[in-house]
Structure formats: C-alpha cells, structure tokens
Amino acid sequence: MPQGADTVVPVELTDIPRGPVPLPQEVRVDELPAGDNIRAAGSDVTTGQVVAEAGTVLDALTLGAVAAVGVAEVEATRPVRVRAVATGDELAPLGTELGPGQLPDCNSWLVHGLATALGHPTERVLLDHDDPEELGRRLPELTADTDLLVFTGGVSAGAFEVVRQCLEPRGIEFGQVSMQPGKPQGVGQLDGVTVLCLPGNPVSAVVSFLAFARPWLDAASGRETPGPVTTVLGDGWAKKPGRTQYMPVTLSPEEGRLVARRRSAEGSLSHLASRLAGVDGFAIVPAAAEGVQEGDLVEVMMVP
C-alpha cells in the first residue's frame, strides 16, 4: 500500500472505461468504507502456523496450500499398496455364467472399494480354487510390490480352508475373535508384507476390514483412524450375549439428533451382501448385551 492509503477501490467501482484505455486525469469513485479491500499481512497464515498436519493426504487442495506459502519440498510417503485376494472354488468372475454351487465374486470388489476410498492403490485378485499347494506357488507373485495382502475366505476350520491350510504352516496366526459377524481371522507377515486373512462372508469381510485393516492402513499412512460416531437408535433388536455385534445401519438427522436404524430386519447376518447397499456404518453392541432398545445411545463404526 502506498504511504497514507487505507482503502483499495476496485476499478469496476470507478468511471474508468473498460478495456485498455489511457488513464484519465481524474477518476470518479463510488464511496467505500475506509479499510475496504485490504488484505492485512498474516490474514492468510501467520508465522509458525501449521498449514498441513503430519498424516494429511497430499491432494490437490493441500498441495495448493503448501505451494501458496512457498514450500517447495515436504517429507511424504507413498500411498500404501494393497492387494485384495478373494478365494474359493465357489467364486466366479463377474459377468460369467454361474455353475452349480457358484457365487459371483464380490469380496475382491468390496476390499478394493474400501481400500481405494481410503486413498490406497489396490489390485484385485480372484483365486477360484481351494488348492493350498497352488496358493503356495503363487505367494511370491501375491506378495510382490505390495504392502498389505488381504485375503477373504478360506480362514475357518472347515475341510477346504485354502488360506489357513497354506499360510498357517508359514507362520500366519489364525484364531477366533469374539465378534459377530467376523469371528475367524488371521494375521502375520510373509516376506516383509503384512497379511490379513478375513472371513469369506461379505458382511463379515467388510466389518473385519473396517475393524482391522483400516487401522493398520491409517497407522502406516501416519494418520489416526476416526473414532465411532455416537447415535440414537431409531429401532431396537435382540441379540445373543457373548460376542460384540456389528449391525449394519443407516443414519439420518432427525430433530437435531443423528438416528441409526437397521439396514434390514434380518440384521447382521454375514451373508446378506445385497443389503450392504446404502449402509452408512455398523452399530457396535457390546458382547454382554442381550439387545438394544429404541432411543438407546450406540456407537457406530463408519464406512469411509
């Protein structure tokens, strides 16, 4: 600002003709309050102010903000790479005709979509067999160029649990978690790659990804996993005590409250894949509870 000036008048508020014309000797301006159109030093950012916290994704807006304060370089890590592997000889690729006893593969798409929504490049793989030896031969390929290997299916205690039968002898730990859905789980490392083995039922796979894979991905990316959201139940239901329940719910603002309702009357059955459409999150019901009532407060684990 020139010394003695305290206001900036936009040219469109003067009588200067538009376009490249010679400046007149005198200019008429509309009346403006003193101090108008002044951008004070420090009004955008002050000395020592943090522009982008550690763990912030360097998206277009963050890059613009960093560039705007003249920072040419920042320490960053590449996105964590994920490989989503759906297993089972009952699975068929989308778009193919189903044979007897077959199901379309949706798990690789679910894990791919969840990981991608969190900003991680993800590759889908379908292993449509239950052969532990064949899976073992493919492990070098599956662990190459990835940071997190997520299997779905083949992790329980049946006779044809391809993932458990192949990976348990290789040091991956398998066990049961007191949750519904999502009881059987596996975790470990292969050649420096973290491996998570999730159940094959689609709702179980989603709940397990949000409960276990998302916190790992967030930690590896230097950011905190958002906590659950407190809601008011719009309906109630009974449950068997003993396991923490994750109920698919939809959320809606009503009279200043966030209200959660079951996505379907069938509840949290692990095979209800088509009922995942429109789910906002999963209401967490404590293991000891025998049910919940309309009006109860409940925490909801949100879908990204």
TrEMBL record:
It catalyses: adenylyl-molybdopterin + molybdate = Mo-molybdopterin + AMP + H(+). GO terms for cellular component: cytosol. The keyword Metal-binding applies. GO terms for biological process: Mo-molybdopterin cofactor biosynthetic process. Pathway: Cofactor biosynthesis; molybdopterin biosynthesis. Its cofactor is Mg(2+). Residues 83-219 form the MoaB/Mog domain. It comes from the Bacteria. Its EC number is 2.10.1.1. GO terms for molecular function: metal ion binding; molybdopterin molybdotransferase activity. It holds the Pfam family MoeA_C. Keywords: Magnesium, Metal-binding, Molybdenum, Molybdenum cofactor biosynthesis, Transferase. The keyword Cytoplasm does not apply. PANTHER family: GEPHYRIN (PTHR10192:SF5), MOLYBDOPTERIN BIOSYNTHESIS PROTEIN (PTHR10192). Catalyzes the insertion of molybdate into adenylated molybdopterin with the concomitant release of AMP. Belongs to the MoeA family. This is Molybdopterin molybdenumtransferase.
